[in-house]
């Protein structure tokens, strides 16, 4: 039972730390664009053109 003297404050501190992190993420706009992530996955903008095509086109 003596260990509860240490565990309860640690649990409360970790809970408050998690709550503070969640509130910070809300304030900084982490959850503003919920639709954009699912559409960004489908875009192929990050694909590079192979070097062979670059030289033959120029």
UniProtKB/TrEMBL annotation:
Pfam families: FixS. The chain crosses the membrane at residues 6-26. Keywords: Membrane, Transmembrane, Transmembrane helix. NCBIfam families: ccoS. PANTHER family: FIXS PROTEIN. This is Cbb3-type cytochrome oxidase assembly protein CcoS. It comes from Roseibium polysiphoniae. The lineage of its organism: Bacteria, Pseudomonadati, Pseudomonadota, Alphaproteobacteria, Hyphomicrobiales.
